[in-house]
Design a protein that fits this description.
Low-confidence stretches: none
Number of strands: 6
Number of helices: 10
Largest sheet: 4 strands, parallel
Structural class: alpha/beta
Strand content: 5-15%
Mean pLDDT: 85
Distance between the termini: 68 Å
Radius of gyration: 33 Å
Oligomer: single chain
Length: 244
């Protein structure tokens, strides 16, 4: 078989070609060279092995070329990201068999053998890591929702809930300010001294004894509104606003 590799990564396709030495393989780093050769060929290649990343980056449309020459050339995209690993050979076989068919003078089994060998090469972890679109995505971490983008969005939603709770439960302004401080600490306990300092930074001066009283009142309001699902707990190093 005559196989044309057309790719942005000729070095990768040379590696693939080395694994099918019993066929005549030619590697081109773009469509221009391949088309120039094909236009002067009496018999077109038996298979085109294409780079998927060229699909939307080249002005040349291989399907349009086939329409012009009124010939169909079996083609596959070796790094097609839409194919499940381990099924590439079957996918390519099905795709060609039921689209425009194999060349009549070549046994489809010969094509399938080539597909299997290409699949084996490009899915080798030592090689696939260098092929565009072949890298497996990293597993989504369990703490993904505390990354910046989602953290900001979730904090916005939670703060809107706080505002809604303030209105519905008629929370006094001084208690709501305390609640905001505890909420913004994001799981870090705040001591009475830290809460007092943050009040002062907002030009709100308050005694430690008054803070204790406010925490008690705010905790009671939260207990009277269990649907809000928040509570205040005391730790050795301070107070926390927690979801329950």
């Amino acid at each position: 078989m005559v196989i044309f590799f057309i790719t942005f990564q000729p070095e990768i396709c040379h590696i693939i070609a080395d694994h099918i030495p019993d066929h005549s393989c030619y590697v081109f780093d773009g469509f221009d060279g391949a088309i120039s050769v094909m236009q002067n060929m009496k018999n077109l290649p038996d298979l085109l092995v294409l780079d998927y990343t060229m699909h939307n980056h080249e002005a040349f449309d291989v399907n349009e070329f086939m329409d012009i020459v009124k010939r169909r050339i079996p083609k596959i995209y070796y790094n097609d990201p839409c194919i499940i690993a381990g099924t590439r050979a079957d996918h390519w076989d099905f795709l060609i068999r039921y689209s425009h068919g194999y060349k009549r003078d070549i046994d489809p089994k010969l094509y399938y053998d080539v597909f299997e060998r290409i699949e084996k090469v490009i899915e080798d972890p030592d090689i696939s890591q260098y092929i565009p679109l072949m890298q497996k995505p990293k597993p989504l971490p369990k703490d993904f929702y505390v990354t910046k983008m989602y953290k900001e969005e979730s904090m916005k939603d939670a703060y809107n809930r706080l505002i809604s709770f303030k209105i519905r439960a008629k929370v006094p302004e001084n208690l709501f300010f305390l609640m905001e401080l505890l909420y913004r600490s994001q799981g870090t306990p705040l001591s009475l001294e830290e809460l007092q300092k943050q009040h002062e930074e907002d030009s709100r001066f308050i005694k430690i004894s008054s803070l204790k009283c406010q925490i008690s009142k705010l905790r009671r309001i939260l207990e009277d509104n269990p649907e809000f699902k928040y509570t205040i707990i005391k730790r050795k190093n301070g107070y926390l606003l927690l979801t329950i």
